[in-house]
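Repro case for the chain-ordering regression, as requested:
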Amino acid sequence: MGGKIQSLPGFRDFYPEDCAVRNYVFSHWRAVAHRYGFVEYEGPVLEPTELYKKKSGDEILGQLFHFADRGERQVALRPELTPSLARMASARGRDYKKPLRWFGIGQFFRYEKPQKGRTREFYQFNVDILGEPSRAADAELIALSIDLMRDLGFTADDFTIRLSDRDAWIVFLEEQGLPADSAPAFLGIIDKMEREKPQATAAKLATLGTSREAVDAFIAAAEIGDHFTPLLDDLAARGMADFVKVDLSVVRGLAYYTGTVFEVFDKGKGMRAVAGGGRYDKLCGLISDGAAEMPACGFAMGDVVISDLIKETPHAAAQLATQLATAGATDVYVVIADEVSRPAALAAIQTLRTAGHRVGYPLAATKVGKQFAAAENQRARLALIIGAEHPAITIKDLATREQQEGNIADLLTLVGAPSHLKLNT
Amino acid sequence: MGGKIQSLPGFRDFYPEDCAVRNYVFSHWRAVAHRYGFVEYEGPVLEPTELYKKKSGDEILGQLFHFADRGERQVALRPELTPSLARMASARGRDYKKPLRWFGIGQFFRYEKPQKGRTREFYQFNVDILGEPSRAADAELIALSIDLMRDLGFTADDFTIRLSDRDAWIVFLEEQGLPADSAPAFLGIIDKMEREKPQATAAKLATLGTSREAVDAFIAAAEIGDHFTPLLDDLAARGMADFVKVDLSVVRGLAYYTGTVFEVFDKGKGMRAVAGGGRYDKLCGLISDGAAEMPACGFAMGDVVISDLIKETPHAAAQLATQLATAGATDVYVVIADEVSRPAALAAIQTLRTAGHRVGYPLAATKVGKQFAAAENQRARLALIIGAEHPAITIKDLATREQQEGNIADLLTLVGAPSHLKLNT
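-- result from build under test --
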């Protein structure tokens, strides 16, 4: 039988306290998406490996969990959602009014070296608008990302939106007299620029036939150009101008982006992208073999970095702590003071649960003192004490210690309405 | 690039209307678990293949999606949650007050022939009590399963709990003078009895040294015996006696069950198990190599059969339809009557969303008639019309067709509180 079995490296166990943090993030993802009029969808966790070939970035392809299934199909655990979305939207987009406003929350898999902020599985929030070519769609997504960050307790001091556009770099390549097919290699260099030594970047740029100086000058000029004016005006009308900064050094790693790209950037010590996305106007056509061209844009936020950032940011962490303290608490703990009254207690428990209360009680005969300790452990609001004197009962408010006597017939009136917050539902 | 890429056989795309049904089931799973005082956890989707060897039933083992990862580890997509739970509870059970009341909602994978009610991936609701040996824990789980079915709109006419106990069959084997190590083979025969030809079952039983007649007589006697009295009394105290029927022909397929087993059984044409579970008092010890013995019981319900059953059962389907009709609807659709007022509209949209409203609006310049059609399509409650006369605005109730004039400064008062239900959050 072997020794103890461990979980796989890079895969997380979500114990209840971890799962509560996960659900807190999920509930904010859902709530903001709903306010923006998005509807939820989900794709398969396992897809044909072919779906990711040439569509995702090389970085992702090298990290796929892939294998042949029992039917000899080449399959992969999904590393991202966009190719599945493009497949689904291409297949049935006609059945829905455009633009589609779809969001998904699901799990993804990349075989990377596990480290802080990086696991081999992660949850991701994907938000996409399909069928709308205008910058207004890009602005709507950026606004959603800003509101999501504010909803999680962050301010303009904590994060910024770095806004860019791959089309600007296509213009740059033309100006520099470089061929259009050098774009993927060139964008790859720009994408890695921040993490690389300046000399390494300069050498790579020289090989392509341009220079670090030209790149830097272009980046500086874009900040004062008017390429981004419509998008920035849209965000300014929403009162969000302060959150956005044009920064052409952002190109995002995925192969399929075509125009606007942006990231939600942690301004603190972390200096990392918390979310990112952009336009991918060609992907639906590519995946449907030309059958269903559709302009599209979207962004994704993973759960790992944002959860770290919440915990590192005092005001966001305080909001999390407050919500967790009230979520999941028991409404009523039923103390069975005498085993003879267990059937009466079970009937009362059923009445309370049917009315929507969250109810705890001892499964086995237990001393009354231990039962009160259990009630406290479950952060119960009330204790209902049922004993030999049934149908007379006692209700105790566990915060104020106030007690009230009554009759079991008045149980629901005595207890009042369920008080639990619905964070986890 | 190849032709169009399809999804894998047995893997589902959840388009928004499918995802809404999935979320409806999830929300009932969560709500009932919370009322019963369970807290949510989750394990990894990928586990060492070893975790399932000899612990799950042979049927499951033959259906594993398994492969060697890039680090040459033998890994499997999880076919069920209980072994992960046993691993987690063994590793850190000491950190929690006993009994643990844990539930999980996640995705599972089995390579089976896709057919009605059977897919290669499915969601499953797992509810378990660990650290409590008494029948009261079994009763609590059965009660939860009954309340869950009632919450989904089913009645005692639609389903029954088939209650059984593997220990009773151990007694039977002793009475028949059969060796204890014939139990796994014997239970396998009983498990398949309902789906097999009587002659086939009789032949297999004869090989083991017993008979169909002896088995039938034992099953008939158990119905009037008192083995199940404590459990049935517990459920009767909750007013649930009518939902339960003793039936020893139920043994459940998993290898690790030790005592009570039960299933939620569809009484209609389907004649199928909708959920099932039981005691597995040895599994934690087995998985921790003896380090953490812990009595345990639990049950699981998949999403595929229950969703089919909801759709086939008129009163359950009606409840689903009612909840879906109100869930996810837009609160306010902002009609931009004149493009000059788009910035003002964006400001109003932001104000509404910040107040918690679900807001839709046209991303591109659109004729007013088409905007009202979009509002209807999104089942919006109100239309807010903003045009050149801004800051004067019009609010229209899309159900009653009543209109109201006002000023943008009074927007939130005019619109009232967000009315959307929180089904999907």
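Ordering looks correct now. Chain B touches chain A through 107 residues (CB under 8 Å).
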